[in-house]
Design goal:
The chain is an alpha+beta fold. It contains four helices and 16 strands. A hairpin with a 2-residue loop joins strand 4 and strand 5. Helix 2 (174-183) packs parallel to helix 4. It is globular. It has helices at residues 2-7, 174-183, 203-216, 221-233; strands spanning 12-13, 18-20, 39-40, 44-47, 50-53, 57-62, 66-70, 83-92, 95-99, 106-109, 129-136, 144-146, 158-160, 165-168, 187-190, 195-199. The strands form four sheets. It has a five-stranded mixed beta barrel. Strands 1-6-7-3 form a four-stranded mixed beta sheet, with no helix packed on it. Strands 2-5-4 form a three-stranded antiparallel beta sheet, with no helix packed on it.
């Protein structure tokens, strides 16, 4: 099935499209046959031996086996397990309300941070940025975020964002980000809700990186290489 998915890279898929693992009854004696492993990103979900398309968009691929749909939707739809960048909007008792760009705000308990206890509360203020993961994402329930993994460790999650710049992008920027990091060493955090946070050595370089990302988002690979070469040569 993965070879068939690869043939669809760059094409528009629609909700309801199904890709099935093809099982054969023949056994190869000359080479090892390993089961196909496919990681489903936004817009795709596993259903037994099938991969089902949940929303329309262009199929994208990242080595070795990550697939997702790149769509220009304005409102984010939460999905369990996805890591997002949220903005703390209010404190309500023991729960923070977080704006993730969806139709409703998500909740984040103060105990959902590494090392947090009733006596040792995390230092979280309204307006802070958090990199968190969805624990509950159901249309019938309020979305719930956590800043720890299954073992209780932060593992990159938590409050961040001092001195950086936050803006919205598409999810197909991973390759562009790698090229930009070679030009301008910087910190980049990309959430699955289409928010990108960037911080470089200075405010000027941070703005340059942000402008390059926004301007190269819809360019072809050749156009991006030309643009980055001009920036590197100082001719832009």
């Amino acid at each position: 099935m993965e070879s068939f998915l690869k043939s669809k890279i760059g094409e528009v898929l629609l909700p309801g499209d199904v890709f099935t693992f093809i099982k054969t009854d023949t056994i190869s004696l000359s080479e090892d046959v390993k089961p196909e492993k496919i990681v489903c990103g936004p817009g795709l979900r596993r259903d037994g031996d099938n991969v089902v398309v949940c929303k329309s968009g262009v199929l994208r691929h990242k080595q070795p086996n990550l697939y997702w749909l790149d769509s220009q939707q304005r409102r984010y739809v939460p999905a369990k397990g996805e890591s997002v960048i949220g903005i703390i909007t209010t404190k309500s008792g023991d729960v923070f309300k977080v704006d993730v760009g969806g139709s409703e705000q998500a909740s984040l308990s103060y105990l959902a941070f590494e090392g947090a206890t009733k006596r040792n509360r995390p230092n979280v203020q309204v307006g802070d940025l958090v990199y968190a993961q969805f624990l509950i994402a159901n249309k019938d329930m309020e979305p719930e975020l956590v800043c720890i993994d299954s073992s209780g460790r932060a593992n990159g999650l938590g409050v961040f964002g001092a001195g950086g710049l936050l803006f919205k992008v598409s999810l197909g920027l991973s390759e562009i980000m790698k090229d930009l990091e070679k030009l301008y060493p910087c910190e980049l955090v990309l959430g699955m809700n289409g928010r990108l946070w960037v911080r470089a050595a200075s405010v000027q370089k941070t703005l340059i990186v942000a402008n390059l990302l926004e301007s190269s988002e819809n360019m072809t690979a050749q156009q991006r290489r030309t643009l980055f070469k001009r920036v590197a040569d100082g001719t832009l």
